[in-house]
Amino acid sequence: MKRIALLLTAVLACGTLQAQIPNAGFELWVTDPDSNNNPVGWQTTNSLPLVNVEPYSPGCQGNYAMKVRTLNPGFPFPGVAFLQVAYNFSQIPTRFSACLKSNIMPGDRAYIIVGLMSGDSVIASQDSCTFKIDSTISQFTYREFPLTIQSNLIPDSLIIIVASGLGSGQVGTELVIDEVAFRVGGS
What is the dihedral of CA 130, 134, 139, 141, to 10 degrees? Predict the structure, then answer.
């Protein structure tokens, strides 16, 4: 019986904390009052007729993933999707994971930026949890990114930003993301 309890504890300690991320698989999309199609729970830079965040099919798992891309309405306009939500984590996550594919133009990068908070206290700062994708990934690939944890407090909210570039992004850069999750324990 002790072995079963120990095994169960080990499995849970190295588990996934995916349930807290709304629409983590990007299966749900909704049309807002301005006729923009956005992933449920996420804010985007979509502003018809400029649509630079859209469903991508098929997803890594399921029917859809989310694609952010840089457009050219006379200047580079990177696609950005943003999620900020309250959630009481049961443990401090140590890694962020996602299934990705990308088309990165020469000299450009796509970004995934993560932040974790507990009230007003920073648990994982966005400036130390900025993950850069600087090469093309032609097939969906599972990636894990280590979180730099600054406090032993349990987070109660999260921020995730997915961007096809920042500032002067290159037109044509795209990042497709699916199955986002926080993980705890070793890799």
Answer: -30
Q: What is the pLDDT of residue 3?
A: 38
Which residue type does 51 have? Answer: V
Q: Is 90 helix (H, G, I), strand (E, B) or coil?
A: coil
Domain 2-183 sits in CATH at: 2.60.120.260
39 half-sphere exposure, CB direction, 13 A CA radius: 28
Q: Provide the pLDDT for residue 13.
A: 38
Q: Quick check: helix, strand or coil at residue 95?
A: strand
pLDDT at site 53? 98
CA–CA separation, 141 and 104 (whole Å): 15
Average pLDDT of 134-163? 96
Q: How far apart are CA 52 and CA 33, in angstroms?
A: 17
For residues 179 and 156, give the distance between their C-alpha atoms in angstroms, rounded to a whole number: 21
pLDDT of residue 6: 32
Residue 83's pLDDT band (cuts 50, 70, 90)? very high
SS3 state at 11? helix
Can you list the alpha helix ranges (DSSP code H) found in the chain?
A: 2-13
